[in-house]
């Protein structure tokens, strides 16, 4: 059955709702990612030369932090070039 | 009777001999005693003229002994992590962890951590079979480090746990507002988050160990009548105070026969219980020799507390 | 006539989108042959997440839309509405939107890296450093310009703008509490927020807070320092969210009124003179200074950075870049068109036929907009719509003040890096986020206090457009070396023209406007402004020339890759 006007309107409204949801949470999302990154740095810093708790304790937790580890590695890359994302998330204009 | 008796002190002051003699005395009195050496020098076997290993070896009636192999505990500790990591990582995770784990055994902090778990293991495994655990500690530096570890780490782990809780809260909030948000889709509830669970269990373990050291242990320092020994003993007491642990007594070894306690000692320590011992010239060996060492004062004090 | 103009802009944008834009995409960018977008290739569920182009468009548009597309045209209408529209339409279509679009695509091809990174890679380290400094200056100057505008708004009338804004903040905090701390859903919290927002307007209209402009500067300074230190979910995030509703309402109602009003554009002449009095009370030649006045509605450098931030990492396919990058910028042009129409069509109704060009830019827009909407949609009272327009601008401006402060801390830190070894003391001081925050706020508000926005806004635009011209040059380099060499001139020529225009504009500004600060009898604070603004301009010009020199040195090289090795 070909999409009716009603379907288009519904789809449009859904998209608008999604955009607004992202608007209501964009900065929170950014903040959360940074918090998770920091958690990992504090915990695993010893593995990369940052003074932190015993590497041994970090190893105990490592098995459960696979996703966070990926995030930390991604963020290490981001930290070299954060300007674009910062300007996007912080409404400058 | 306290659960664990720690003999602290510099190398060469006579810890091993005194701790062994005390263990014998307690065993003779009817206690079931396990004496364990954490000292990598492992003089315990020499003093008892026996071969000691990781498992208790009968030394005398109601007296067993063992030597804790710290390197073995470090490896065992790391192996546990290695197994868990392998079980949990996705197959395409290309970290070469084996290499890391080998380096870790040299990392600062791993050794004292392993000692802690060794003590915990000893305490838990053997509490049914023995009344007392006598510990001959490694050199002071390492001993102070592992004694400090529970109190130091507890603060740290508590902060990490709080941070984790905050992360979980924010995840919940964010997903509520925007279910499509691109964040780590992990747990959002404390009870489902394995990391939080692990942090809590580490906290719990550390707290139990701290309680073990603070409330169920008797700590005594062995020293010789010289300046260095005295200075060290003062430092140890200060440090233990800072950690919330109490030093119960001093054992002055190699004191002049029937001589008075040196003035400085009484000046600094006041009416702190001090027990003097005096050994024969060529050291003490074997059960007979140990039986000759007079530790009655210490034993009485032990039983009183 | 207003309806015609509005519809004409719509048609024009659409036509060029589908012809010029699509042709660029097919023949120059060749998105259909491009590798998969990084959102798919590098998908990590965290930053690289393929997202629908409609959602991204909404995101991107909301990020680039603010008070900028309003302030510029309001100032520029002094030249007459025709040249303004010409720049807003043609400048946007051929330069501004292209700039946004190409920056976005370049970033996509560079795996989502920022345009600063791309510039550094293609032109050289100096270009990267230049970006950092220009953004620093941009931050200070935008705070200065917006600070002055907001303080002016707060001091005007019966002080109803401040009270509405204050209640708006309260509404945002309350809504934020419901949305983030309780189980109430997004929908219900939004409704509560909107209801409180409307209430804020009614209460604000009734109860104003009067104070001197100087006092408002102090209030704004304190606001910046405090607001930028708060956790984002308290005030910034919910207010940003509610701001978007102001934007949609303003656009919708404005567009509707412009069409239904069918008013002739008679309040302002189609063309006044080539050098109308616009910037700092000086006769400002349309060329080269129009980019310094109308920035965000036609061309804006920092959009490139925004595009190369999250947008490039989330494009599902490279083809979507046209819609998101080119399309969003055109939509902003649409907003600026409405601003021009409102003043040119309804200014006389609002202010009196001969007063339109003599009134200040902001009151000009606010009253015209208010008159436009209330005359066509009478259930919205004039006072209410005036207040709405004022709060619309102020709220976006104040958000910018907050976020620029946050961004500025990072920039200060980055720029201070070289001091780490040479002057560790100073470096240590600048590292402290409170100090960095206060420094930025102080510089910005200080300039606002001693200058005025007809001078500060063009200075900000100067920094902004210099960034734009470097971005265009970067993209030209990219096209030449990584894409189709024979089409390189399609981008290079506009890039060079733009660069020449902007550089001449800034030189004009430095020679004509800045000396005014130092004329005989000028108060000290004015001289300080002159020193700061003049100094910034001179530094920017210097860095500009250095970067461009490096650009031309590299551009000529046949094989860039070997040249860099």
CATH architectural name of chain B:
3-Layer(aba) Sandwich
Q: What CATH architecture of chain C do you see? A: Up-down Bundle
Reported by name, the CATH topology of chain B is Rossmann fold
Shape of chain C: globular
The radius of gyration over CA of chain B amounts to 23 Å
- Give the SSE string of chain B: EHEHEEHHHEHHEHEHEHH
> In what range is the share of β-strand residues of chain B?
5-15%
CATH topology of chain C: Amino acid/polyamine transporter I
Roughly what is the average pLDDT of chain B, rounded to an integer?
82
> Which assembly state applies to the chains in this document?
heterotrimer
Are there runs of chain C of 5+ residues with pLDDT below 50, and where? none
Structural class designation of chain B? alpha/beta
Measured between the Cα atoms of the first and last residue of chain B, the distance is: 7 Å
CATH class of chain C: Mainly Alpha
Q: Major sheet of chain B, described briefly?
A: 8 strands, mixed
- Overall structural domain count of chain B: 1
Going by helix content, strand content and strand pairing, the class of chain C is mainly alpha
Overview of this protein structure:
The complex is a heterotrimer of chains A (93), B (305) and C (565). Chain A has a domain of 61 residues. In chain A, 72% of the residues lie in helices and 0% in strands. Chain A contains four helices and no strands. In chain A, helix 1 crosses helix 3. With 305 residues, chain B is α/β, with parallel strands linked by helices. Chain B has one domain: 3-Layer(aba) Sandwich (Rossmann fold), CATH 3.40.50. An eight-stranded mixed β-sheet of chain B has the order 3-4-2-5-1-6-7-8, with helices on both faces. In chain B, helix 5 packs across helix 6 and helix 6 packs antiparallel against helix 7. Chain B is elongated. With 565 residues, chain C is mainly α. Chain C has a single domain, classed as Amino acid/polyamine transporter I, CATH 1.20.1740.10. Chain C has a two-stranded antiparallel sheet. In chain C, helix 4 packs across helix 14, helix 4 crosses helix 15 and helix 16 packs across helix 19. Chain C is globular, with a radius of gyration of 23 Å. The termini of chain C are far apart. The chains are: A mainly alpha (93), B alpha/beta (305), C mainly alpha (565).
């Amino acid at each position: 059955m070909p999409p009716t006007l009603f379907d288009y309107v519904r789809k449009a409204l859904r998209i608008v709702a999604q955009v607004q949801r992202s608007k209501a949470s964009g900065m929170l999302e950014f903040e959360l990612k940074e918090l998770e990154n920091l958690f990992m740095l504090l915990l695993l810093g010893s593995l990369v030369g940052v003074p932190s708790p015993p590497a041994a304790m970090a190893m105990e937790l490592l098995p459960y932090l696979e996703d966070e580890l990926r995030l930390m590695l991604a963020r290490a890359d981001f930290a070299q070039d954060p300007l674009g994302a910062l300007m996007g998330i912080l409404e400058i204009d | 009777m306290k659960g664990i008796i720690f003999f602290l002190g510099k190398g060469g002051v006579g810890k091993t001999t005194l701790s062994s003699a005390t263990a014998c005395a307690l065993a003779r009195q009817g206690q079931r005693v396990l004496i364990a050496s954490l000292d990598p020098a492992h003089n315990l076997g020499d003093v008892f003229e026996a071969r000691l290993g990781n498992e208790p070896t009968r030394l005398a009636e109601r007296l067993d002994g063992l030597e804790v192999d710290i390197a073995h505990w470090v490896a065992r500790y790391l192996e546990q992590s290695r197994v868990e990591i392998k079980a949990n990582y996705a197959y395409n995770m290309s970290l070469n962890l084996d290499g890391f784990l080998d380096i870790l055994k040299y990392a600062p902090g791993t050794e004292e951590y392993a000692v802690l778990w060794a003590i915990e293991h000893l305490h838990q495994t053997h509490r049914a079979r023995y009344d007392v655990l006598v510990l001959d500690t490694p050199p002071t530096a390492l001993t102070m480090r592992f004694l400090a570890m529970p109190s130091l780490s507890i603060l740290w782990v508590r902060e990490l746990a709080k941070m984790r809780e905050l992360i979980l809260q924010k995840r919940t909030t964010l997903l509520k507002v925007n279910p499509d948000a691109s964040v780590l889709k992990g747990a959002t509830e404390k009870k489902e988050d394995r990391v939080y669970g692990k942090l809590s269990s580490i906290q719990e373990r550390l707290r139990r160990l701290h309680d073990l050291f603070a409330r169920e242990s008797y700590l005594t320092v062995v020293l010789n009548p010289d300046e260095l020994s005295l200075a060290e003993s003062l430092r140890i007491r200060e440090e233990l105070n800072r950690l919330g642990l109490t030093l119960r007594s001093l054992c002055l070894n190699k004191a002049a026969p029937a001589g008075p306690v040196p003035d400085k000692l009484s000046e600094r320590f006041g009416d702190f219980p001090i027990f003097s011992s005096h050994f024969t010239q060529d050291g003490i060996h074997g059960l007979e020799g140990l039986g000759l060492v007079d530790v009655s004062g210490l034993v009485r004090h032990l039983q009183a507390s | 006539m207003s309806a015609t103009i509005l519809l004409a802009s719509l048609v024009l944008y659409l036509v060029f989108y589908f012809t010029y834009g699509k042709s660029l995409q097919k023949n120059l960018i060749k998105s259909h042959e491009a590798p998969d977008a990084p959102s798919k290739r590098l998908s990590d569920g965290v930053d690289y997440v393929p997202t629908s182009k409609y959602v991204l468009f909404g995101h991107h548009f909301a990020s680039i839309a603010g008070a900028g597309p309003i302030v510029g045209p309001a100032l520029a209408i002094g030249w007459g509405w025709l040249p303004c529209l010409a720049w807003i339409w043609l400048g946007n279509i051929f330069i501004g939107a292209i700039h946004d679009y190409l920056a976005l695509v370049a970033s996509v091809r560079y795996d989502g890296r920022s345009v600063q990174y791309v510039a550094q890679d293609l032109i050289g380290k100096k270009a990267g450093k230049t970006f950092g400094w220009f953004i620093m200056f941009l931050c200070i100057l935008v705070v200065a310009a917006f600070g002055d505008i907001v303080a002016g708004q707060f001091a005007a009338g019966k002080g109803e703008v401040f009270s509405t804004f204050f209640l708006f903040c309260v509404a945002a905090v309350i809504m934020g509490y419901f949305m983030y701390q309780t189980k109430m859903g997004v929908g219900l919290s939004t409704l509560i927020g909107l209801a409180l927002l409307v209430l804020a307007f009614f209460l604000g209209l009734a109860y104003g807070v009067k104070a001197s402009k100087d006092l408002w500067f102090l209030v704004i300074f304190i606001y910046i320092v405090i607001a930028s230190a708060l956790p984002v979910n308290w005030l910034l995030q919910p207010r940003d969210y509610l701001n978007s509703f102001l934007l949609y309402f303003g656009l919708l109602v404005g567009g509707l009124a412009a069409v239904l009003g069918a008013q002739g554009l008679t309040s302002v002449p189609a063309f006044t003179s080539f050098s109308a009095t616009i910037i700092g009370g000086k006769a400002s030649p349309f060329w080269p200074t129009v980019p310094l006045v109308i920035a965000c509605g036609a061309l804006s450098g920092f959009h490139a950075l925004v595009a190369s931030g999250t947008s490039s990492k989330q494009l599902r396919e490279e083809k979507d870049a046209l819609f998101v990058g080119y399309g969003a910028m055109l939509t902003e042009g649409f907003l600026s068109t409405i601003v021009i129409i409102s003043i040119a069509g309804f200014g006389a109704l609002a202010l009196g036929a001969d007063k339109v060009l003599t009134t200040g830019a902001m009151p000009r827009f606010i009253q015209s907009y208010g008159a436009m909407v209330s005359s066509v949609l009478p259930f919205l009272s004039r006072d209410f719509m005036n207040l709405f327009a004022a709060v619309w601008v102020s709220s976006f401006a104040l958000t910018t003040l907050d976020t620029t402060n946050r961004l500025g801390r990072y920039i200060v830190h980055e720029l201070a890096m070289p001091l780490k070894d040479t002057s560790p003391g100073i470096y240590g001081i600048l590292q402290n986020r409170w100090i960095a925050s206060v420094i930025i706020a102080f510089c910005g508000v200080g300039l606002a206090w001693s200058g005025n926005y007809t001078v500060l806004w063009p200075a900000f635009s100067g920094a902004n457009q210099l960034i734009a011209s470097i971005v265009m040059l970067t993209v030209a380099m990219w096209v030449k070396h990584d894409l189709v060499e024979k089409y390189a001139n399609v981008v290079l020529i506009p890039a060079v023209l733009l660069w020449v225009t902007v550089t001449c504009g800034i030189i004009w500004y430095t020679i004509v406007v800045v000396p005014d600060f130092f004329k005989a009898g000028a108060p000290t604070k004015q001289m300080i402004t002159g020193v700061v603004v003049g100094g910034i301009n001179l530094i920017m010009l210097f860095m500009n020339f250095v970067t461009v020199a490096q650009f031309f040195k590299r551009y000529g090289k046949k094989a860039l890759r070997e040249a860099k090795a």
